[in-house]
């Protein structure tokens, strides 16, 4: 909070200073801040529950987001985003669309999506914090009251100093998170053994491989987990995995969602640093899996007998706080509580800072008061932040669990985002009207289809949502005139994407013969495949370490080193040589 007060004067200079730190923050600080914001308490509780139930196979389930989207950003999309020089995702639209009607339609539908996304993440964080508080904090206050108090603190320092406050506190909080990860991992390895873990887990629990079916039988250990696996629909794991992969690749190609991830990319000093920042995020999240697996191992070895006596409807998202509350000694428990509260605040402050940008810059400034002083806009950011938080808290009341909110975000909302945002990068004929139709079709179908077909999960409905959005985007574009060639040529010269840009490339070369078409897509695809393997090794190496599958761990270390060498040669070296295409 003191840092927020100190940074207040710098933050009030302009909206760019408030939301992007005047684009002067080093990439490694932005990368740590971004990773810290992703190291959230609700997500960690969910990861503990899936690794507890599915073992090493649970490492695949974060591909629902997908977590490997950072690889796509690292390889090429971060540079494409940063070259725009925009302030927000909606502001970015002015680099791609210029037709007055289409541009405003595209901007407004993205603002709606961004606010839905930010509010949903606020609800997700609030739900996780309330669950955590219900276990750890004294019952003199309701868990939601504790959550309100912590939200108020986060809100105050985040609004005072803007992104500088957020980054500073994220770095301090990330240090705390590293500390609790190492301590819990060490504690788990000292007080458990490979034999004690094997005694409380079914055959295949420690293996990352799977067939058509999951083949995990908890009958003689925790039989209620078999019901949970069946209820969640992961029993036929291979079809689920293929659908998850299909969805993950499409969402990743669409680029970053308009949240704090995109904000960090736009805040970097140049496109090269944007790519480096995305690469650091994957590396910085390595300790999270030590923490997750440590909690799981302690829970299995010391808590399984108690869980057998629990109600079959026991919420396994609460395994993490129960384990820490029951089996971690005083002192260490305090450190862990502080670390997880830091994780919550780190996610929450980034979310509200990014959400306020859309309300102030893309609604108030653009449509209501376009010529006010920078200081007056920054003051309005305080009110906008409060509004975003209030909406998120209100929505969380109607959600039963973290998994419900996560399902809506990753399966429903993201399904509507993917198609139009893939087309904006890769198809010259795409326009603002098409973007509006695609996003509107996606948002509407992601809301309505789960109500019409409640028997299907969000991931099962993703193909339908994606198809509706894609058809709406293509039809909307073809039924309206394309963007003028000056706009398209300017965008191509600045961003230099690959894809279906034939007529634009021809026109650009007529005007500037020295500009070559972007033919890097084979190298990018190769780097993405290698990068996904590299990223996955960062997930399962610490998992195998803590559960003492040392042979598998060393194989993963070898694969990680090999893929790192390949990426150094095929990604990092060309990145360092690359020049601004414009």
Automatic annotation (TrEMBL):
Any one Gene Ontology cellular component term annotated for this protein: plasma membrane
One Pfam assignment: SSF
One of the protein's GO biological processes: proline transport
PROSITE patterns cross-referenced by the UniProt entry: NA_SOLUT_SYMP_3
Keywords of this entry: Cell membrane, Ion transport, Membrane, Sodium, Sodium transport, Symport, Transmembrane, Transmembrane helix, Transport
UniProt feature coiled coil, ranges: none
Subcellular localization, as worded in the UniProt entry: Cell membrane
UniProt cross-references to Gene3D superfamilies, sorted A to Z: Sodium/glucose cotransporter (1.20.1730.10)
Catalytic activity, reaction form: L-proline(in) + Na(+)(in) = L-proline(out) + Na(+)(out)
Chain ranges passing through the membrane: 27-54, 60-77, 105-126, 146-167, 174-194, 236-255, 276-303, 380-399, 430-449, 461-479, 525-546
Gene Ontology terms for molecular function: L-proline transmembrane transporter activity; proline:sodium symporter activity
The keyword Transmembrane helix is annotated on this UniProt entry: yes
Topological category with respect to the lipid bilayer: Multi-pass membrane protein
Record PANTHER family: SODIUM/PROLINE SYMPORTER-RELATED (PTHR48086), SODIUM_PROLINE SYMPORTER (PTHR48086:SF3)
Family label: Belongs to the sodium:solute symporter (SSF) (TC 2.A.21) family.
Name this polypeptide is given: Na+:solute symporter
Organism: Pelagicoccus enzymogenes
């Amino acid at each position: 909070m003191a840092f927020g007060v100190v940074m207040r004067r710098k933050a009030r200079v302009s909206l760019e200073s408030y939301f992007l730190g005047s684009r002067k923050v080093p990439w490694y600080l932005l990368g740590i801040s971004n990773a810290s914001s992703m190291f959230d308490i609700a997500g960690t509780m969910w990861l503990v529950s899936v690794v507890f139930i599915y073992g090493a196979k649970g490492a695949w389930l974060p591909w629902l987001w997908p977590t490997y989207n950072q690889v796509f950003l690292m390889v090429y999309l971060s540079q494409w985003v940063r070259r725009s020089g925009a302030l927000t995702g909606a502001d970015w639209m002015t680099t791609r669309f210029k037709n007055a009607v289409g541009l405003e339609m595209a901007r407004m539908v993205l603002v709606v999506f961004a606010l839905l996304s930010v509010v949903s993440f606020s609800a997700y964080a609030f739900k996780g914090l309330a669950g955590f508080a219900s276990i750890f904090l004294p019952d003199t206050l309701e868990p939601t009251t504790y959550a309100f108090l912590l939200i108020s603190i986060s809100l105050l320092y985040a609004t005072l100093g803007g992104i500088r406050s957020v980054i500073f506190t994220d770095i301090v909080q990330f240090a705390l998170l590293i500390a609790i990860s190492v301590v819990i991992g060490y504690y788990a390895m000292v007080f458990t053994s490979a034999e004690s873990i094997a005694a409380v887990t079914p055959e295949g629990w420690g293996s990352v491989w799977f067939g058509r079916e999951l083949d995990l039988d908890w009958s003689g250990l925790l039989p209620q987990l078999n019901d949970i696996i069946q209820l969640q629909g992961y029993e036929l794991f291979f079809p689920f995995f293929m659908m998850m992969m299909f969805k993950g690749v499409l969402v990743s190609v669409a680029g970053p969602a308009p949240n704090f991830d995109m904000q960090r990319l736009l805040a970097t000093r140049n496109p090269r640093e944007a790519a480096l920042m995305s690469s650091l995020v994957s590396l910085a999240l390595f300790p999270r899996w030590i923490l997750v697996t440590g909690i799981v191992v302690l829970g299995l070895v010391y808590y399984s007998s108690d869980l057998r006596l629990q109600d079959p409807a026991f919420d396994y998202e609460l395994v993490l706080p129960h384990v820490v509350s029951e089996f971690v000694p005083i002192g260490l428990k305090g450190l862990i509580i502080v670390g997880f509260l830091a994780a919550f605040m780190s996610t929450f402050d980034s979310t509200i800072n990014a959400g306020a940008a859309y309300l102030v810059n893309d609604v108030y400034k653009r449509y209501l008061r376009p010529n006010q002083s920078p200081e007056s806009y920054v003051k309005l950011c305080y009110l906008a932040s409060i509004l975003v938080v209030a909406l998120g808290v209100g929505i969380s009341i109607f959600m039963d669990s973290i998994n419900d909110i996560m399902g809506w975000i990753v399966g429903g909302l993201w399904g509507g985002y993917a198609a139009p945002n893939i087309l904006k990068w890769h198809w010259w004929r795409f326009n603002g009207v098409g973007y509006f139709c695609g996003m509107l079709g996606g948002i509407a179908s992601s809301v309505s289809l789960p109500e019409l077909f409640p028997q299907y999960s969000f991931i099962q409905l993703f193909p339908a949502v994606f198809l509706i959005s894609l058809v709406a985007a293509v039809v909307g574009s073809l039924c309206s005139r394309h963007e003028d060639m000056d706009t398209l040529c300017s965008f191509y010269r600045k961003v230099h994407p690959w894809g279906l840009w034939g007529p634009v490339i021809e026109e650009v070369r007529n005007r500037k013969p020295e500009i070559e078409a972007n033919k890097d897509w084979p190298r990018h695809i190769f780097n993405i495949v290698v990068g996904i393997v590299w990223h996955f090794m960062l997930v399962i190496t610490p998992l195998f370490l803590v559960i003492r599958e040392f042979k598998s761990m060393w194989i993963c270390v070898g694969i990680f080193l090999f893929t790192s060498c390949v990426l150094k040669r095929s990604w990092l070296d060309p990145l360092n040589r690359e020049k601004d295409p414009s």
